[in-house]
Amino acid sequence: MDIKSKEFRKQAHQFVDWMADYMDNVEDYPVKSQVLPKEIYNQIEDNIPSQGEDIETIFDDFKKIIMPGITHWQSPNFFAYFPANTSPPSILAEMLTATLGVQGMKWDTSPASTELEERMTEWFKNALGIPKNWTGVIQDSASSATLASILTAREQKSHYKINQEGFKGFTNFRVYCSEETHSSIEKGTKIAGIGKENVIKIKTDNVLRMRPDLLLQSIKQDIENGYQPLCIIAAIGTTGTTAIDPLNEIAEIAEKFNIWLHVDAAYAGSVLLLPEYQNLIKGIEKADSFVFNPHKWLFTNFDCSIYFVKDKNALVNTFEVLPEYLKTNTDGMVSNHCDWGIPLGRRFRSLKLWFVMRYYGLEELQNKLRYHIELAKWLENEIVKSTNFKLVVPRNINLVCFHFKPQGFSDIEELNKINEVLLQKLNDTGKIYLTHTKVKGTYTLRMSIGQTNVNQNHIKEAWKLITNKAMEII
């Protein structure tokens, strides 16, 4: 039942028409899926069909069964988490990627995949202000990049003995991060065999940045107690509030004690394309690795995470495995990116980056980022002017963290319940989608303004809805 070329063309055109209509009309869908648990599951057959079905029938079921269960990340009314943006050039490139079906594990398996990736990471190295002597590679996610850093730090510190012999004599490592950093750090230490109990979470200051003085104190205490400091993770944009750790001060501590320093800029790293924000990574030359995700705020389909390392040999020596069936005549002359991270298999991720960067150009990318930041400033000002809403922390870049605090209410637990109800009411409308965090015990609404096509009207309408729904509660 192979699809012949003529039939494929017909169906592909129908799909593309639907895709274009979806992009035009995405605002018409409820932003957050309104289905109940198991509602999708129960509409799908228990087993593989015994006979094949035609594409038209399958596509109809996609529209009828699957679409109601989609939360529309590409809606300009999506303000939850951080965005996972796409754009027309990225979608077109993904279509080509899917058609080619490239598995870019080694240079030989697709030279274009490897060499375009090398050039794309160089483009970003130059544009972001990453040191010239660093090397980049594309990973699937910042979680994988962080794990790669922890593993590389582990192997470098053990002189690559743990990979060879296991943990004999190396059971006292410590990893440091702020209490605000991403859960992937704990997950990475578990996978790396270090253990989450050896993740030391450093307290933060009044704007939720890691305190270097407490980091230094913890490191000294650990050394006195027989522990071996292994890795520090500094955040340029924490997940909860986009707090910016003081990198230069942290980097000086890492350098002094010879500790691997990884910089997690998964979301906020995109803002380094703006020269006025490059001061956020002052001290980067003292660090060892850096990651940011174009798939969050640079209009590039998930997944695409760019990881830079100062010492590429340490990375390759950590992951390189060369069985006979992977040996090629070009080994030693080219980069084989299967040795630069955890998986052997690799998608052709650089193609969509190439399309997006060329389509928009640096100036238009910068314009879009600045516009999103201006929208966040507008919302921040509205909250400051309000008598019933308060900023929980100052706006960082384009994330606004606030809560509903009506006059006459002061009990934190009561306010937390009110804000939780407000969030649920807002998301139940289907008109916008927000998520929350807790900041020092305060239930906090997060509004991340970075969707590809968001504009001033979306923010004004969202703020109007938020204020109206809040008044319904009290």
Brief synopsis:
The protein has 474 residues and is an alpha/beta fold. The protein is built from 14 helices and 11 strands.
Describe this structure in words.
- The protein is an alpha/beta fold and 474 residues long.
- The protein has 2 domains: 102-347, Type I PLP-dependent aspartate aminotransferase-like (Major domain) (Aspartate Aminotransferase, domain 2, 3-Layer(aba) Sandwich), CATH 3.40.640.10; 356-473, Aspartate Aminotransferase, domain 1 (Alpha-Beta Complex).
- Helix content is 42%, strand content 12%.
- The protein contains 14 helices and 11 strands.
- The protein has helices at 5-25, 55-66, 88-100, 111-128, 142-157, 161-165, 184-191, 212-224, 247-257, 294-297, 312-319, 350-385, 412-428, 456-473, and strands at 135-139, 173-178, 199-202, 228-235, 260-264, 289-292, 305-309, 389-391, 399-404, 435-439, 442-448.
- The protein has a 7-stranded mixed beta sheet with strand order 1-7-6-5-4-2-3, sandwiched between helices. Strands 8-9-11-10 form a 4-stranded antiparallel beta sheet.
- Helix 7 links the parallel strand 2 (173-178) and strand 3.
- Helix 13 (412-428) packs across helix 14 (456-473).
- It is globular, with a radius of gyration of 24 Å.
- It starts with a helix and ends with a helix.
